Transport and Golgi organization protein 11 isoform X2
Amino acid sequence: MVYQNFALTTGSASKRSQLLQQQQSNLDGSMLAHREGTPMGELTPHEEILYLRRQLAKLNRRVLNIEINNEQRMQREKIVYCLGLAYFVLKTIFWLNRSN
């Protein structure tokens, strides 16, 4: 790394551009390798099936989590709706009793 930085400061412009391109391609490859567990290179059919099963399990967990959150939100909305309705019904009853 130190040698490359030294070469970047002392080398010719073409050498610098080649080294920069090489570093960029190395970074791109490492970023792709670390992205969401994506395997690099050729996979055997068995490895591909295992990889797809893992991805499917992850997706199933996410969908299940979303469904649970949605169900909880619907229950909270029902409770708030019932409390609001009860409040207005009681207000109406008290108002009718007061006006008599």
Observations:
- The chain has a mean pLDDT of 80.
